[in-house]
Amino acid sequence: MSAATPCTANCTSSTSRSPTPTEPPQSTADGDEDFASPPAPRSRFAWCITGSGHYLEESLALAARLPQLDLFLSSAAEEVLGIYHWTLPVLRERFPPGLRIVRDKTASAVPVGRLYTDVYHTVVIAPATSNTVAKCAYGISDTLPTNMLAQAGKLGIPGLVFACDTEPVVVTKAPHDWVTLRPRRIELDNVERLRQLDFCQVVASPAELETALAERLHALSLEWTSPAS
Ligand SMILES: Cc1cc2nc3c(=O)[nH]c(=O)nc-3n(C[C@H](O)[C@H](O)[C@H](O)COP(=O)(O)O)c2cc1C
After folding, report:
1. Distance 52 CA to ligand 1 centre (A)
2. Over the stretch 66-113, which tens digit does the pLDDT of each residue have?
3. Whose CA is nearest to atom 30 of ligand 1?
4. Atom of ligand 1 at shortest distance to CA of 56?
5. What superkingdom heads the lineage (predicted)?
6. How confident is the model at residue 122 (pLDDT cuts 50, 70, 90)?
7. DSSP 8-state class, residue 124
8. For 223, which of 4, 63, 108, 133 is 20 to 30 Å away at the CA?
9. Structural contact between residues 149 and 198, judged by C-beta atoms closer than 8 angstroms
10. Can you tell me the distance from the alpha carbon of 37 to that of 20, in angstroms, rounded to the nearest whole number?
11. Which residues contact ligand 1 via a Cβ below 6 A?
């Protein structure tokens, strides 16, 4: 999809209605949540989640402290979130009111059209799987998160990617146990390649992610909605 594609927020839903910030989100036919009314320009974080169990909890904990945020899920993210007991109702319960959850239900990443309406000031992918890191590093965009980052870059919207496979040895929480993984050279190289991308900051730990988000909030004259616990 190019920036010239005549797609607006309405192309993500046929049920857009008019607005107040406190109004609950409107459900679209495919289960996505659209804005009840157009939000202020560059007022929201677009936070993409991929199918990574590694650092999922830590990423969600930071996301839940940000003001004005929408979640964009890859298909794998939706599955993996469920495996870790983060179903969509649980997400809605744990995030501040006003959250929109956008699911990956189209081959052409139709919801990316929301970026063209100038609603989002930042696109985050956290946690980012090795798969998503590889695709982003090579300019492939065939999922909602990879399309969001690609289009954000083309629009000059800052992107922030939390690449999880960045160390020679990674200890990760599988659904039932802790597992030790050794990312291959290709995964580590892809992270380095991703660092070369325009409009894309790469972080490699929850602490780095928190620092990068704090800097972004400061640049936008915004604040965390709640302190770290
Ligand atoms: C329970 C579970 C946990 C997973 N955790 C990871 C992970 O930590 N890192 C990773 O790169 N892939 C992980 N995967 C595999 C990805 O979900 C898979 O590669 C998927 O195709 C990624 O798609 P996406 O990048 O579009 O979200 C996990 C899969 C499952 C079922």
Report:
1. 4
2. 999 999 999 999 999 999 999 999 999 999 999 999 999 999 999 999
3. 80
4. 8
5. Bacteria
6. very high
7. E
8. 133
9. no
10. 6
11. 50-54, 74, 76-77, 80, 83, 129-132, 143, 164, 172, 175
- Taking the C-alpha atoms of residue 125 and residue 107, their distance in angstroms, rounded to an integer, is 19
Name the residue ranges covered by the structural domains of the chain: 40-219
Ligand 1 atom at minimum distance from 135 CA: 25
Class of domain 40-219 (CATH, top level):
alpha beta
- Name the CA dihedral angle for 206, 191, 140, 3, rounded to a multiple of 10 degrees: 60
Confidence of residue 214 (pLDDT cuts 50, 70, 90): very high
Distance CA 70, CA 223 (A): 17
Distance (Å) from CA 53 to ligand 1 centroid: 7
Strands 178-181 and 170-173: antiparallel
Closest-lying ligand 1 atom to the alpha carbon of residue 55? 8
Q: How many CB atoms lie within 10 A of CB 149?
A: 30
182: pLDDT confidence band, cut at 50, 70 and 90? confident
Ligand 1 atom at minimum distance from 146 CA: 26
CB atoms within 10 A of CB 105: 17
pLDDT tens-place string over residues 19-58: 333 344 555 544 456 666 778 889 999 999 999 999 999 9
Distance 21 CA to ligand 1 centre (A): 34
